[in-house]
Amino acid sequence: MGTPESHIRDSLATVFGVKGLMDPDQDNAERTEKSDNIKKASSETSESPPAERVSAASPKAPQPGSEVPAAKKVVTGVNESGYSRLSRRELLKLAPIVVLGAFAVPSLQQSLLKKGLGFSDWASRRLFRRGHLAHTFADSELTPLERFPINDYDVDDPGVILESWTLTVGGAVQKPGNYRLTEIQALPRIRQNTRHVCVEGWDVIGRFGGARLSDFLNMIGADTSARFISVGCADDYYESLDMETALHPQTLLCYEMYDQPLTREHGAPLRLQIPTKVGYKQAKYLTELKVTNILDKVGYWEDQGYSEFYGL
Q1: What CA–CA distance (Å, rounded) separates 295 from 286?
Q2: Cβ–Cβ under 8 Å, residues 163 and 246
Q3: Which of these, 22, 41, 106, 204, could form a disulfide with 143 (CB 3.0-4.6 Å)?
Q4: Mean per-residue pLDDT for 158-186?
């Protein structure tokens, strides 16, 4: 029975068509034996009479009853260091196959995907900068409002009673309670033309207006050393933001589109508008906001396996 190393060499030779891969110890032993045979033959030749040396150059037919010498094994010349380099090279070629093979194992798929998303979110958070602004556009570049897609996870209109609507605020804040839309509209209004990117593959340039979320957090006395902002919605959707994103100057509590009040289909009376994030982070029909260090739920789509950070 061969050693694990010999099985690896045999497998590499079979998969990649590498010929002549030999055990380094066996290779060294055969080269030593070959060298000894050459020295022995040379010694015998030098001691033979001249006539015998001449005749030795011509092959002789085997005599009856004599044994035919066995053919010597051909050595390819792959030395130990060359074999090591070859092995590493071929194993590197196998790496993508191994990874793809791991994804083909059902019991490993979820774990690998979760770890991959975790690494992606970690890297995105490290690259995110509060002072780095998303690109803004001229009015001439806007997508017409009638061509702005309406995209919901459940219904286009959950039936919010706009006249009695309030945003319920809680968690790590000095002024919890219910806030009316007029109180949010009393904060400085920001209007910006930014790109909205959907995870489904489409994007449009829209005009959005509202209060900076950072201004609202300041108004309610939020603890901005907390890690997260979570929101709940009238259609039972839910979402969360890391605090750095919540404090970004382009993150809005949006109550306008194209200088007009939000329509019901686009999230009236209040939605998140975050040009540094993908569309599903921008929850509509807001009813609750909480400042917290611990998330019971991350987000509707994130809890089904989507990226938690998803920065653009």
Answers
A1: 18
A2: no
A3: 204
A4: 97
131 domain-assigned: no
Phi, psi of 301 (to 5 degrees): -80, -35
Tokens for 80, please give them: 């130990």
pLDDT of residue 16: 44
Q: What is the pTM of this model?
A: 0.64
* Summary count for the chain: helices (H), strands (E): 8, 10
Residue given tokens 């030749």 in the structure block: 45
Beta carbons within 10 angstroms of residue 212's beta carbon: 20
| Domain that includes residue 180, residue range | 137-304
For residue 203, give both structure tokens: 């994007």
The answer to whether position 58 is within a domain reads no
Q: Express each pLDDT in 225-257 by its tens digit.
A: 999 999 999 999 999 999 999 999 999 999 999
Task: Clarify whether residues 89 and 227 are in a common domain.
Answer: no
Residue pair 137/201 in contact by the 8 Å Cβ criterion: no
Nearest residue to 194 (alpha-carbon basis) of 237, 124, 250: 250
